[in-house]
């Protein structure tokens, strides 16, 4: 969160600082003149002491004005810039955030003053986002830090991350715990507040042969994949399936390691071959 100072308070402090600078310059010149004339007995000792006192007070006032600006968040570099600004710019200033990021909320309108106990803008670094996954109590034993998570947004964007940690407590209201996933958010397509679907890989089991789920087609009630033969022709081959997840299907029979199968566009291949009648033994 970024808390900003009331503009009038800062403008008054800047004006007081500039006025202190002017008074110091004048007091310094008066004291220098009096100091030069005291030996010539042109000015009295009383006038010399008064000029010296005014000079000392002007330095004290300037120091206090500087400290006031420092307390309001003005740094040394910005302090030097103030003396170069026009008087018309005294009520304008740059709000500098303590971190770089994106403005995610604005609580300020033109002409409105902002007190110190209210935010003008809220800035967040959304280059990395957190995703909280609700885990039911009966699934907690299967979920742990380091597991791979596939996250899918409502718009279909899919990305992968890993669980950073799982909260040790279960909510009394929802009877769930939270698993937190940290994701890089480039190019800023994940937005705070979005609802997503998460799939957690709770275990890994080897498979001798697997194919992408998109490669599977159904023909006359049987699962088939299209395999390219040595002549480059595509032939439907029945397969026996085993386990599956959201991306892959295990093939128990019908394929061997090294077979080339159609993945993307398998349905189009099926449609084209059906037109030419791939059941007559002439597959082209």
UniProtKB/TrEMBL annotation:
Residues 128-201 form the CusB-like beta-barrel domain. Residues 12-71 form the CzcB-like alpha-helical hairpin domain. One of its GO terms (biological process) is copper ion export. Signal peptide: none annotated. Keywords: Cadmium resistance, Transport, Zinc. Residues 1-125 form the CzcB-like barrel-sandwich hybrid domain. Transmembrane segments: none annotated. Residues 209-270 form the CzcB-like C-terminal circularly permuted SH3-like domain. One of its GO terms (molecular function) is transmembrane transporter activity. One of its GO terms (cellular component) is outer membrane-bounded periplasmic space. CzcA and CzcB together would act in zinc efflux nearly as effectively as the complete czc efflux system (CzcABC). The CzcB protein is thought to funnel zinc cations to the CzcA transport protein. Belongs to the membrane fusion protein (MFP) (TC 8.A.1) family. This is Uncharacterized protein. It comes from Methyloceanibacter marginalis.
